[in-house]
């Protein structure tokens, strides 16, 4: 009996799981170790005496991606902002160069894989395979397939069909929080303040990042969202709806959950420090998006406008825009 354990996913896939030589069809059992979800992050922090609010645990997930190895560096005596500076921006920051080390240790062709990841980072909705080939100037062949499959199996990216597109237009989307955080704030920047995060925690740049990063938190917690909607047993497909080149409306919907019970949950995702308030302009925008979506689906499909946010929806004359509200606590539920 041979037990193989490691993080070099592309090697394990090529040499063991997909081997066509002497090891063909010889793998008895495969265990995939995925990152922690939000509830598991909370439990892990508690076991290490780290006291964070769920608001901050969600932010730490946006940065560390639910990886226990990274979370183990968190100092219980520091705030989240202080920890982020210590890990990424301070003198001798232990995770400052982790991005490059990560790809070198996990992938056989780290530079080629990093090029794909850096391209996918530039568009939230992701790119088709054809677009990846064109923009990177690479060959569309087995090596690209291997790199994409390794990224998918390692939970760096997902493959999905955006709403309104055909199956031949599958998109590859970057969902790994650690990579998104690194490319957004560190990347090729040569000089960054050692207290960058504490100094910019309320800046527009960080707020914009939080909004996009929380979308990925939701994409990584679809089962928790379904459970909150009471549709755990319903077969669904998830996607986003982004503006096409010929789309004069410029519509973008963060998350669509298409259900086989003739319902689509049209989800708006908002990461706020308090209750989310719907004003008149936003109310009109939601109704417009709902009407536009209705034009593109069967008349038998019901559209439920759904808000996914941190602390709930403030009740006012426009809050009826949403028929369902999911809060941060719902994303922490495992059962």
Q: Can you describe this structure?
A:
The protein has a 5-stranded mixed sheet with strand order 4-5-6-7-8, sandwiched between helices. Among the domains are: 38-96 and 182-190 and 200-212; 221-331, Trna Endonuclease, Chain: A, domain 1 (3-Layer(aba) Sandwich). It contains 15 helices and 8 strands. The chain is globular. The protein has helices at 9-17, 38-47, 54-64, 68-71, 80-89, 98-106, 110-121, 129-136, 142-153, 177-185, 196-200, 204-219, 222-229, 280-294, 328-331, and strands at residues 127-128, 157-160, 171-174, 236-241, 253-259, 263-270, 302-309, 324-326. The longest helix has 16 residues, at 204-219. The model has no long low-confidence stretch (mean pLDDT 90).
Query: What would the average pLDDT be, to the nearest integer?
Result: 90
- The unreliable regions are none
Helicity, as a percent range: 40-55%
Let me know the number of strands.
8
SS-based structural class? alpha/beta
User: How many alpha or pi helices?
Assistant: 15
Question: What would a concise description of this structure say?
Answer:
With 335 residues, the protein is α/β, with parallel strands linked by helices. Helix content is 42%, strand content 13%. The chain has 15 helices and 8 strands.
């Amino acid at each position: 009996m041979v037990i193989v354990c490691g993080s070099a996913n592309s090697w394990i896939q090529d040499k063991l799981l997909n081997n066509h030589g002497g090891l063909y069809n010889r793998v008895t059992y495969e265990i995939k170790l995925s990152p922690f979800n939000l509830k598991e992050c909370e439990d892990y922090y508690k076991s290490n005496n780290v006291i964070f609010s769920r608001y901050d645990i969600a932010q730490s997930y946006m940065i560390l991606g639910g990886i226990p190895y990274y979370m183990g560096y968190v100092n219980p005596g520091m705030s989240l902002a202080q920890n982020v500076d210590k890990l990424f921006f301070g003198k001798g920051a232990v995770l400052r160069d982790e991005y490059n080390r990560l790809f070198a240790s996990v992938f056989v062709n780290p530079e080629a894989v990093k090029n794909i990841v850096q391209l996918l980072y530039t568009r939230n909705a992701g790119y088709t395979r054809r677009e990846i080939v064109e923009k990177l100037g690479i060959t569309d062949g087995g090596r690209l397939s291997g790199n994409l499959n390794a990224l998918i199996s390692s939970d760096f990216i997902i493959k999905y069909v955006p709403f309104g597109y055909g199956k031949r237009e599958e998109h590859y989307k970057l969902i790994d929080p650690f990579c998104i955080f690194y490319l957004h704030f560190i990347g090729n920047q040569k000089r960054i303040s050692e207290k960058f995060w504490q100094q910019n925690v309320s800046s527009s740049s960080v707020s914009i990042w939080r909004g996009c990063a929380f979308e990925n938190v939701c994409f990584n917690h679809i089962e928790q969202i379904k459970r909150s909607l009471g549709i755990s047993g319903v077969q669904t497909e998830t996607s986003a709806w982004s503006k096409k080149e010929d789309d004069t409306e410029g519509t973008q919907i963060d998350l669509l959950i298409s259900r086989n019970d003739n319902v689509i949950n049209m989800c708006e995702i908002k990461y706020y420090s308090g209750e989310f308030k719907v004003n008149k302009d936003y109310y009109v925008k939601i109704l417009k998006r709902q009407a536009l979506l209705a034009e593109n689906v069967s008349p038998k499909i019901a559209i439920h406008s759904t808000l996914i946010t941190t602390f709930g929806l403030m009740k006012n004359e426009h809050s009826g825009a949403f028929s369902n509200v999911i809060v941060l606590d719902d994303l922490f539920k495992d059962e």
